[in-house]
Amino acid sequence: MTVLSNLAPIPELYVSYDSAEKLKVEAGNFKSHDLTPRQICDLELLMNGGFSPLKGFLSEEDYNGVVENMRLADGSLFPMPITLDVSEKFADTIEIGEDIALRDQEGVILATMTVTDKWVPNKSNEAEKVFGADDDAHPAVYYLHNQAGKVYLGGPVTGIQQPIHYDFRARRDTPNELRAYFRKLGWRRIVAFQTRNPLHRAHQELTFRAAKEAQANLLIHPVVGMTKPGDVDHFTRVRCYEAVLDKYPGSTTTMSLLPLAMRMAGPREAVWHGIIRKNYGCTHFIVGRDHAGPGKNSAGEDFYGPYDAQDLFREHQEEIGIEMVDFKHMVYVQERAQYEPNDEIADKDDVTILNISGTELRRRLSEGLEIPEWFSFPEVVAELRKTKPPRSQQGFTVFFTGFSGSGKSTIANALMVKLMEMGGRPVTLLDGDIVRKNLSSELGFSKEHRDLNIRRIGYVASEITKNGGIAICAPIAPYSATRRAVREDIEQYGAFVEVHVATSIEECERRDRKGLYKLAREGKIKEFTGISDPYDVPEHPELRLDTENVDVDNCAHQVILKLESMGLIAAI
Ligand code: PPS
């Protein structure tokens, strides 16, 4: 197929400046929905034409078509349900035909929507059909079941203003801005490269080759909306991309940032990415091995086959009007000191092929090990090292859990002193009793209040961890689901070391240091953990401490040894 770009402007959903000002005032009286970060990304691409032909959040009929066979009710191809999920409580207040205001997280009205549809989706069916499995290990399925509201609202959107971005403004373009840029430069064949990772030499080589093969100019089009949890943050990535841009021959290549919220939907996602790039004026699109793959499912297997995305894209490229350039797996051939496509190396047995996987790269970064020049550019490695110092310099949280009187506070204090003696990072102790005097002074011991207490401790610990400090927490934290949630909050920024202080309830009651067990037995304290309220024993803590036959100093020392074995403190 031969595609030449049609760079005429595409329709946007914005009203004119004057009308926007009026509409904004009017919309102040509408019921309003505060958009989630993902919905803000979706809205931006709806309004600027990136999701063309969509004119708003999907109606029920369009949704059913997209879920079942990747088509809107009018037959146009669209593989991803772009839906406005809301709470039941909000949905109950909305009448069909009503206009609502869509606000960002600070309350700024970005758009209005006329609600034409309101329905409760079958989320399991959506998960099966769109993502291939109803399995929470898939990040978009997890989102669907655990974060998205129960009800979907659909209807056409009227754009008032773009979401506000304060970062990298000069690098952000709407489809029409990019089309105008291509027109101005006389670019008629443009190959887009989608990425959510830093670029290393192999990527630079493959994108360069793809552009040569397609006889096209190159658009590096990284996603800066939402990517897979755990990815390198986009601030770091953009600084890395800027360093790599200099490595391409002058004026052949440009970079623009795409505010997309990825779903990691593999084959469907690839087709969606193609439609978006077509809207941005591109003629070619690079599709890799395992494009937008979400990793392993809960049975430890890949969600999609490595070439499923390429196969589905090939089927639809004519209709989208964008040609696929399939990704070459580039490897480094040491003897020839260059990158070559793996499947084109005829003398494989006679040469040394070098490759560093993503996992190996992360290991080297976290342990402060060398990253060779053949693998990446020094500027990129320097940026990555700034964001991800070795583990022994990163922040982390030690989270003690156990019954009242189990010895958590005493061991936590001893640990704090030992860590302060070592120096290097600030140490903060968030002890159960102290937190309840300060941060959570108004809370009691109902399940709801305990959860709130632990989530607050987790929030403070995650901030400390993010900023390179050591947080030591010592609450009872009786419920495993809450501990898991706190672990997830903290692991975005650093290690979470759960230590179960496994003193038995009998021993705690025998010690009864504060006299509380006696009162609990007498019914004078209600909902007392271990007596009249449950404690979920941690199944897989990083460390379990037996305090009944071991002294405090030794317990704290066991924690230090654990931290050392995890690389969190330098060897002692
Ligand atoms: S929780 O469940 O994690 O929110 O509890 P936490 O904040 O760690 O509890 C701190 C101390 O409160 C005392 N206390 C009780 N504990 C358990 N159940 C009930 N009903 C209760 N009422 C008061 C108890 O002494 C806890 O102190 P520690 O330091 O654990 O001995």
Automatic annotation (TrEMBL):
InterPro entries: APS (IPR002891), APS_kinase_dom (IPR059117), ATP-Sase_PUA-like_dom (IPR025980), P-loop_NTPase (IPR027417), PUA-like_sf (IPR015947), Rossmann-like_a/b/a_fold (IPR014729), Sulf_AdTrans/APS_kinase (IPR050512), Sulfurylase_cat_dom (IPR024951). NCBIfam families: apsK, PRK03846.1, PRK05537.1, sopT. Catalyzes the synthesis of activated sulfate. It catalyses: adenosine 5'-phosphosulfate + ATP = 3'-phosphoadenylyl sulfate + ADP + H(+); sulfate + ATP + H(+) = adenosine 5'-phosphosulfate + diphosphate. Keywords: ATP-binding, Kinase, Nucleotide-binding, Nucleotidyltransferase, Phosphoprotein, Transferase. It is an enzyme of class 2 (transferase). This is Adenylyl-sulfate kinase. Belongs to the APS kinase family. ATP binds at residues 402-409. PANTHER family: SULFATE ADENYLYLTRANSFERASE. Residues 172-386 form the Sulphate adenylyltransferase catalytic domain. Residues 394-546 form the APS kinase domain. It comes from the Bacteria. Residues 11-161 form the ATP-sulfurylase PUA-like domain. One of its GO terms (biological process) is sulfate assimilation via adenylyl sulfate reduction. One of its GO terms (cellular component) is cytoplasm. Pathway: Sulfur metabolism; hydrogen sulfide biosynthesis; sulfite from sulfate: step 2/3. Its EC number is 2.7.1.25. Pfam families: APS_kinase, ATP-sulfurylase, PUA_2. GO terms for molecular function: adenylylsulfate kinase activity; ATP binding; sulfate adenylyltransferase (ATP) activity.
